Amino acid sequence: MNNPEKQPGLTTLPGGLEPVAVGRRLFLRYSGAFVAGSALLAACKNEENPITVSPSPTMVDLGSGDIGILNYAYALEQLEAAFYTQVMTTPYGGMSDAERTILTDIRDHEIIHREFFKAAIPAANRIADLTPNFSAINFADRTSVLNTAKTFEDLGVSAYNGAGNLLKDVNLLLLAGKIVSVEARHAAVIRDLLNPKSADFAGDDVVTPANGLDVVRKPVQVLPAAQPFVRNTISGANLPTV
Amino acid sequence: MNLLNIISKIEELDVEAADKYSFYSRRNLIKFGQKALTAAAVPTLFAATANQAFAQAGPSQAAVDVLNFALTLEYLEDEYYRLALNTANLIPAADRTVIAQISKHEVAHVVLLRGALGAAAVAKPTFKFGDSFSTYQKFLGLAQALEDTGVRAYKGQAGSLINDKSILQVALQIHSVEARHAAQIRRMNGAKGWIGTAGNAPAAVYAGEEATMQATIDLVALTGKSAAAVAEAFDEPLTKAQVLAIAGTYIA
Fold first, then answer.
1. Are residues B79 and B190 both part of a single domain?
2. B10, B128: one domain
3. B22 vs A: CB within 8 A
4. How confident is the model at residue A149 (pLDDT cuts 50, 70, 90)?
5. Which pLDDT belongs to residue B215?
6. How many domains does the structure of chain B reveal?
7. Which residue among B94, B108, B225 places its CB closest to the CB of A212?
8. Residue A93 pLDDT more than 70?
9. Which residues from chain A sit within 8 angstroms of residue B50, using beta carbons?
């Protein structure tokens, strides 16, 4: 079989699948608590046995074309929905009524977005349900929760802003537009909860003062930022780039 | 003056292509920059964005039309906040930071769009805001309508830019900023940051926002969530004609 060491930057999967463009170290780090990694390494040691293990279920390839972009959005929405569901399952101490209303609303919006993509993407092309990794978040702490929410919302806004011109179908472009402005509303509200009546709702850290433009990120920038919050390794290697 | 007339007049303009697509120029920026914007304050990022957006063969006529439509709305918002900030005893001290931040962005949007359009840029109309500055509540009410309309207007034009990829991206980057503004103004105005099914007035600004079907999927049936939550989760577009009918009210 191919020796991964001879293909720096690529990890070859068993079963004749295309290599995915993740670093080997990153792949091993995120490959399902070393289970898949161990299986691969074990397989590599045995030259006699053909590889029979199926691709690790923890690997997720978003796919290509417009469907790939839909899966990309679906992945981000899964992440957000899981986060806010956890926030409202174990609310931090001292959560005010106003905060409870806002965070419940946002949770429901993200669940609706997730379910929309799940219904809209053909099952044969749709990515699996992701397993989140929220181990770095202290759900008992308001600041930890709201700062994570801010990160997710700003990341989502920038991701949709960057995905718009990767779409070919004008109807999908409109749908993405319908969602991104809601994510921007979320971002503004979360930011105002953290720093009320300040300029932070559309702060200079996200809206460039000289041109008034919000942050834009392409998948190659968004996925590494989202990866630490997901146990599955997500590959956007086949997503459109122009 | 009717906004539709302004737009159609732009379309009739017979300008030299070189002038029409002179795009961003430092002179334009200085000429049209307002407030504290000076040549020295214009960072290279702005230049890079504008130049990148209008490089290659130049924008399509459809894109020029969209940009002038957008510019007209930005003129409107820019003037609205500037007049409000200059009206004594209107904006409470505690809220001035927010309003000034929004105003700063509207100024920047006007400069960006004017710079991009160059000689093809529509002139600023004369606006009339009636008694909107007579009380803070009235000011917030129209600010909310303008911001939510702005979000819907950009959204409605995205499809027209699908062949002008760089301009589409810039338009989306303005679109989400308007949504941030809208959410903040709405909450200061006593509303939720998102648009649901209740209290959506004036009707023309919120027509269609109650939608619960997306791409033929009934999201209430699918998710079991309320119609209000589903409506909140998706913002809806307005057509150019719908937007111009709203904005025309404020054109002298």
1. yes
2. yes
3. no
4. very high
5. 96
6. 2
7. B108
8. yes
9. 211
ipTM above 0.85, yes or no: no
Q: A212 vs B106: CB contact, 8 Å cut-off?
A: yes
Residues B205 and B84 in one domain: no
* Rounded Cα–Cα distance for residues B162 and A65 (Å): 15
User: What is the model's pLDDT at position B57?
Assistant: 58
Whichever domain contains B152, its CATH number is 1.20.1260.10
pLDDT at A94: 96
Pull the structure tokens for residue A234: 């997500």
Say whether both B219 and B190 belong to one domain: no
Fold of the A63-235 domain: Ferritin (1.20.1260)
Upper half-sphere CA count for residue A54 (Cβ side, 13 Å): 2
Task: Give the CA radius of gyration of chain A.
Answer: 19
Task: Give me the domain span that covers residue B171.
Answer: 3-194+236-250
B141-195: per-residue pLDDT in tens? 999 999 999 999 999 999 999 999 999 999 999 999 999 999 999 999 999 999 9
- Please answer whether residues B171 and B161 qualify as being in contact, where contact means their C-beta atoms are separated by less than 8 angstroms: yes
Residues B142 and B229 in one domain: no
Q: Is A207 on the interface with B (CB under 8 A)?
A: yes
Contacts of A174 in chain B (CB under 8 A): 155, 158-159, 237
Our CA-based measurement puts residue A49 at a distance from the nearest CA of chain B, in whole angstroms, of 47
Residues in B touching A181 (Cβ below 8 Å): 151, 155, 175-176, 178-179, 182, 235
Helix and strand numbers (H, E) in chain A are: 7, 4
Does A207 contact B225 at a Cβ distance shorter than 8 Å? no
Q: Are residues B74 and B162 in the same domain?
A: yes
Do the bridges between strand B217-218 and strand B213-214 make them parallel or antiparallel, or are there none, so unpaired?
antiparallel
Each domain of chain A, given as residue ranges in start order, spans 4-45, 63-235
pLDDT lower than 70: segments of chain B? 1-57
Same domain for B240 and B204: no
Residues whose CB falls within 8 Å of the CB of residue A49, separated by 6 or more in sequence, listed in order? A43
pLDDT at residue B8 in the model:
40
- B140 to chain A, closest Cα gap in Å: 14
